[in-house]
Write a structure and sequence with these properties.
Blueprint lengths: L1 E2 L27 H14 L3 E2 L16 H6 L45 H6 L10 H11 L2 H11 L3 H10 L9 H5 L20 H6 L14 H19 L2 H10 L1 H13 L13 H18 L1 H4 L12 E5 L4 E2 H8 L3 H7 L7 E2 L6 E5 H12 L9 E5 L4 E2 H8 L3 H8 L5 E3 L4 E5 L10 H6 L4 E3 L3 E7 L6 H7 L4 H8 L12 E7 H9 L1 H7 L4 E2 L1 E2 L13 E2 L6 E2 L1
Parallel strand pairs: 1-2
Antiparallel strand pairs: 3-6, 4-5, 7-10, 8-9, 9-11, 12-13, 12-14, 12-17, 15-16
Helix pairs in contact: 4-12, 6-9, 9-10, 10-11, 10-12, 14-16, 17-18, 20-21, 22-23
């Protein structure tokens, strides 16, 4: 048996074998003898094995156990052959024959490695087939749009290998790797009209149920790793609930409660309860046929006249740990990747800085990850992060907040997505420039719980009312629920001043209340007729009852 060592950069991808050269085999074998041994392997019943690594068609990989570690030789590789060959045997080389019962075990890697990712998917298609007009219609729709297929599959090459790996770990059908084609066309930035987001299209509440964080700095519904983990967990849960993958998919699209009610309705009527038998919305009725159409295209593109771009059966990205707050632009520059390519692999980040305390890892293309780590070690000049988090100590306007962090109001609003006429509530977290002297990174509590809370800015309108008998600054302030000091200031009188009947009194009231004071001030006057808005008589019609007095707008302006 030949045992293949893992590469130093990490475990090789599942289904990909590495062949060791003669120099690695059992020490210093003579070159000719080594060649003879290699040529004899196919006829001697030897197999290529990765310690603790399952085959491409097997259950998920597990770390090597203590037993498998003891069985491996000290140098990690060796040969075991018949003593008549004159080779070292036993524990000295770590070689052992494979029992017939072990030939199909998960420890043996199949030598017929899938040449590309499409072939790997084809080998694990396991769902029940469905046919019909809906499937054929969707097949034709896709085939008639080769540019759409090309764009969609080109986007998928960044993520598809990871999804296939995760499905195999969970022993789930490979058809589910094609589901993002239906949900989002593999666009992790996709947002539906119902606010579902990411390539797996999670609603906000469902995302919370599956621990997908959504805050000021990140939205894990868009995260490649987190959303894939959550989607597969959700699909597993639905399959356990319904016992059928088509019903699980219907529940993923329509909601598990709706599918359960549809099943119960059919049971009461004595009808079958399969996917095709349930009464469901048109979108859900077409959901599985769409997936079946994409599956048919992947399974046999030549038959349908479709072209699929080659996607290699190997990882596209690596995970890199971040230990300091760092600008996204700096990561892209140190990794030598385009900013849009970095964002395509890390679409969950909402701001121009990544906070190490909130999400200490990023994804980088496989070959660029090592380059980034090397360049990061050599990055001595300059700071890592240009931005930080600032928590509002009180409710304030955007202009006041911008002044406190040293930014222009327009730039501050644009950076933090603050619309006009909105107040920033106390405790809100906002982006702000990071000072040169600021040494500490953002804390985990802020990074994990950052939220921006806004409230409508109160717009005041100046109105004028007439004072009645015995009216004073205090009585009018109480009637209109404002401060006596404000009434005195607006009218340039003393706080204890009294008004004469008919005096015009200026007030600044919230817009709605101001309208009430002018147009509906009679309601206040009904309770206290001494003070009411200025009014003018409406023209009276001949031989008609006296008409209600219509308000007249007097001296109005807008203040904040």
């Amino acid at each position: 048996m030949i045992q293949l060592p893992f590469r130093s950069t990490g475990s090789p991808p599942r289904g990909v074998a590495e062949v060791a050269g003669p120099a690695q085999m059992g020490g210093s074998l003579p070159p000719l003898l080594s060649l003879l041994v290699l040529l004899a392997l196919p006829f001697a019943g030897y197999a290529t094995v990765l310690p603790g690594e399952p085959s491409a068609n097997a259950a998920p990989a597990t770390p090597p156990t203590a037993a498998t570690s003891r069985a491996a030789p000290a140098d990690g590789i060796g040969l075991q052959a018949d003593p008549s060959l004159g080779l070292r045997t036993g524990a000295a080389t770590g070689l052992r024959p494979i029992a017939e019962a072990d030939a199909n075990s998960s420890a043996v890697i199949a030598l017929d490695v899938p040449p590309d990712l499409w072939d790997r998917i084809r080998r694990r298609l396991a769902m029940r087939e469905i046919e019909g007009d809906l499937v054929r219609n969707h097949e034709q729709w896709y085939v008639n749009r080769p540019d759409y297929i090309r764009r969609m599959t080109e986007r998928s090459r960044k993520y598809l290998f990871h999804i296939v790996e995760e499905l195999e770990k969970r022993n789930m059908p490979a058809e589910l790797a094609l589901l993002p084609f239906i949900e989002s066309a593999f666009n992790p930035q996709a947002v539906s009209s119902a606010k579902a987001a990411g390539m797996w299209q999670f609603m906000p509440a469902t995302g919370v149920d599956f621990e997908l964080r959504q805050n000021l700095f990140r939205d894990d519904r868009r995260d490649v790793l987190a959303s894939t983990r959550a989607a597969l967990e959700y699909l597993q849960k639905l399959h356990e609930m319904f016992g059928d993958w088509h019903l699980a998919l219907a529940a993923y699209n329509w909601g598990q409660g709706n599918v359960q009610r549809a099943i119960q309705r059919n049971k009461r009527m004595g009808l079958p309860t399969g996917y095709e038998d349930l009464n469901m919305p048109a979108e859900t009725r077409n959901y599985v046929p769409k997936l079946q159409a994409v599956k048919n295209i992947v399974a046999n593109p030549d038959r349908l006249g479709a072209e699929l771009p080659l996607i290699g059966n190997h990882p596209y990205f690596q995970t890199v740990t971040i230990t300091r707050d760092i600008d996204i632009e700096l990561i892209a520059r140190l990794a030598d990747v385009r900013l849009e390519d970095f964002k395509a692999l890390n679409p969950s980040y909402n701001r121009p800085v990544i906070l190490a305390a909130g999400n200490p890892q990023v994804l980088l293309p496989w070959d660029n990850a090592t380059l980034f780590e090397r360049n990061l070690e050599g990055h001595q000049s300059g700071r890592y992060a240009s931005w930080t988090a600032w928590v509002a100590p009180a409710t304030m306007t955007a202009a006041e907040a911008a002044r406190r962090v040293g930014m222009a109001e327009a730039e501050f609003r644009n950076l933090n997505n603050i619309p006009p006429r909105m107040l920033i509530r106390r405790g809100s977290t906002l982006m702000a420039p990071r000072g040169d002297r600021q040494a500490n990174d953002v804390t985990a509590s802020v990074a994990d719980n950052a939220q921006l809370s806004l409230a409508p800015e109160v717009v005041l309108r100046r109105v004028t009312v007439k004072a009645g008998k015995k009216d004073s600054v205090a009585t009018i302030a109480a009637r209109y629920k404002v401060k006596p000091a404000d009434v005195a200031r607006w009218n340039e009188v003393a706080p204890n001043a009294k008004f004469k009947p008919g005096d015009k009194v200026a007030l600044e009231l919230p817009a709605r209340q101001g309208k009430t004071a002018r147009a509906g001030g009679t309601a206040a006057a009904a309770k206290a007729p001494a003070a009411r808005p200025t009014q003018a008589k409406a023209p009276a019609k001949p031989q008609a009852k006296p008409q209600a007095k219509a308000p007249v707008k007097v001296a109005e302006r807008t203040t904040r």
